[in-house]
Amino acid sequence: MAALSLRQKQLDLIVRMLHLNQPPPPPGTEEEEVYKILVLDSFCLSLLSPLLRVADLRKHGVTLYFPIDKPRHKVPDAPAVYFIRPTPANLDRLAADAAAALYASFHLNFSSSLSRPLLDRLAAATASSNAAHRVARIADQYLDFVSLENNLFSLAQPRSYVALNDPAAADADIEAQVDAIALGLFCVAATLGTVPVIRCARGGPAEMVAAALDARLRDHLLAKPNLFTEATTVASFQRPVLCLFDRNFELSVGIQHDWSYRPLVHDVLSLKLNKLKMPADKSGPAKTYDLDDSDAFWVANSWSPFPRVAEEIEAQLAKYKQDVDEVNQRTGGTKDGVEFDGTDLIGNTKHLMNAVNSLPELTERKKMIDKHTNIATVLLGHIKDRSLDGYCDCENDMLVKGTVDRNMLLSLLKGKGTKEDKLRLAVTYLLSFETPPPSELEQVEAALQESDVDMSAFQYVKRIKSLNTQFAAPSSAASRGNIVDWAEKLYGQSISAVTAGVKNLLSAGRQLALTRTVEALMEGKPNPDVDNYLLFDPRAPRSGSCGQFKGPFREAIVFMIGGGNYIEYRSLMELAEGSQPSKHIIYGATEILNGVEFIEQLAELGQKTGLGGGSSSNAPQPLK
Known about the structure:
This protein is α/β, with parallel strands linked by helices. The protein contains 24 helices and 14 strands.
């Protein structure tokens, strides 16, 4: 469905921006060469990174690109394209550049929208230095998100889980975080050119973001024309549903180990912005690999279990060697010393030409095989050193089968693996069983302390879970009120974690709770799991909800507040591909986190709420 091609639409808008906000020339036509300078801040650089390589920038006339916060030389005869976030620091730097006449003209592009006070600040600064005439254009681009794949995006907002769950956070800080998320989602909607119907659970960050986004969209729709005017076509008639979730909805998925190639690479080797940095070792210097849709092996195998990936690498290497041998035989000259006649010469020349033509393809295949051989070799080293297969098996048994081999659990907690591995296993154990046997729980805690693991994250999740259980149990109104009051004091805005109900906090079955809920929201049929979900329709009148459209929906945007991961992404893609008729789902999050990064945020919250201890170390140690 072309309506929701988020990555392509973002790329088209960026290419237009690089052509000074004019449509690029059609392929095959010659364009008058305009050499430009591109100036970016760090966020916009990370936004461009998964979309365009340096060669692509050259193709669009960008000869040099610079960070805005570094000193730069004058290039007085070249226009400059600025792509930056609208912050006071960026605007002050921009005004200084214009005053110094660094470039011939300034084409200013903001990743979201420039507020009136900041516009006035820029106007005053450029006027006072007589540099206003150098500003050729100012454009709000509404591109404040990172497209990692066709169906995957991130707002690149770090530590949002901590920010929204910090018991010491001021209301103003919470509101600023919620507004930043709503702005990012507004940019996603604007890029798609469609106003979604918004669904979310009651209470907590999801409802706050939904209300803020609904208000922002309503305010924007009052203006005519607006960003969504052109999209009133047949393609946008079927509007998508935007399903908002809070990370507390299903904690275990953010923590668990996974055995598939892509989540393993992300978790163990810290894949960032589709780039993998491999440290120098005895096999060679440090390398950076691109892992995206330009890599055919990655596209075909990244969701496969790791052993199958290793087999596929071997199979492709064998096929490559066979093809090379075949080329060598065809171009290897005569057989048995018999001289060529004319026919053989012509035939051999054809073989030689075919061999020359096949060399680039063979070379690319070899580079791809070498790349994945290197990655798989490093992964295998981590798997063996840390018994990652054991962690995956044990967690899978707990999450899927609801059983645990106590001996295996304790041997892992006392044996191989980093401190984070052990902490993640213990927290998964905590979340997998509604009431673990007290003696078993004591043994788990003792094993963690024996391994000198910081207990902050474990105690934080344990406290959330005990609140959940108490709140779910029958009790008097007074005691329920006390629990909620106490929880609000302790957890601030994370009250939804307390009231969500144990069934969501615990992962039941291997179709994730997230995926089951999205499926129900897209179907739009009466369903007790989602009947109490709120509905916001920015295009509908504010009064009354009887006319609001609840589905079915063919397209959905699923957004996780507090951090998403590749496990949820895979589960949602499987839902989309397995549906009849087919569905289209885009998955996004405030940031894409691996298990180590998320457990560190839980540990930080544990320390902030005074639940640390049990270890001599103050914080989880980074992976070696």
